[in-house]
Design a protein that fits this description.
Blueprint lengths: L9 E5 L9 E7 L2 E10 L4 E5 L8 E5 L4 E10 L3
Antiparallel strand pairs: 1-6, 2-3, 2-6, 3-4, 4-5
Length: about 80
Amino acid sequence: MEPTLRSGDNILVDTTQKKPKSDGIYVIRHDDGLLVKRIAVNFINKTATIKSDNGFYDPMYNVPLEDIAVIGRVIWIGKQV
């Protein structure tokens, strides 16, 4: 998620927000790992776009909302200065 998040940054996750109801940064479970990704929700067709702020990674389009295992929404980012 660079440049938004870098190795060593801290995040605070609201684990009560397990279903994306608005666009934001979420912690999700995918392929035996936890990922921090930006999710944009399309409420009309009940899908989402999952993408990284790092352009090296390709976005995942039209992912059904029920297929996303959301751990919680990132509500705070702490960076070292």
